[in-house]
């Protein structure tokens, strides 16, 4: 199967709501199966490792900030960038 076919099918899945595309810095895109519970991401600047996380305090603070500014959130995307705990990444960051 060609790579163009894979991306075409992933785009169709995205349009159907089966998968979600996440676009990160450095032209990194990741597809993941659509989940009911919202989550955010940590991305390693060195190796590109992506960690999903959910933090209720962060979610509540975002709602609070939106409300303070007269917004009703329809959604959000939070991506935190840094260096993961992989030793090679730690060494490369020095």
Structure description:
The chain has 94 residues and is α+β, with helices and mostly antiparallel strands. The chain has two domains: 1-34, Orthogonal Bundle (Arc Repressor Mutant, subunit A); 38-94, Ferric-uptake regulator, C-terminal dimerisarion domain (Dna Ligase, domain 1, 2-Layer Sandwich). It has three helices and five strands, in the order αββββαβα. Strands 4-3-5 form a three-stranded mixed beta sheet, with no helix packed on it. It has a two-stranded antiparallel ribbon with strand order 1-2. The N and C termini lie far apart (41 Å).
Provide a compact summary of the structure:
This protein is an alpha+beta fold and 94 residues long. The protein is 35% helix and 27% strand.
Order of helices and strands: HEEEEHEH
Shape: flat
| Quaternary structure classification | single chain
User: Largest sheet at a glance?
Assistant: 3 strands, mixed
Radius of gyration: 16 Å
Question: If you average the pLDDT, what whole number results?
Answer: 91
CATH topology of the largest domain: Dna Ligase, domain 1
Q: What is the percentage of strand-forming residues?
A: 25-35%
CATH superfamily of the largest domain: Ferric-uptake regulator, C-terminal dimerisarion domain
Number of helices, counting only DSSP H or I runs of 4 residues or more:
3
Distance between the termini: 41 Å
Q: How many domains?
A: 2
């Amino acid at each position: 199967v060609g790579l163009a076919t894979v991306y075409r099918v992933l785009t169709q899945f995205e349009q159907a709501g089966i998968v979600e595309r996440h676009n990160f810095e450095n032209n990194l895109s990741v597809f993941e199966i659509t989940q009911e519970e919202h989550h955010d991401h940590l991305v390693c600047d060195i190796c590109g490792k992506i960690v999903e996380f959910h933090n209720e305090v962060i979610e509540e603070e975002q709602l609070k900030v939106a409300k303070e500014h007269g917004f009703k959130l329809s959604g959000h995307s939070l991506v935190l960038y840094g260096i993961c705990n992989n030793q090679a990444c730690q060494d490369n960051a020095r």
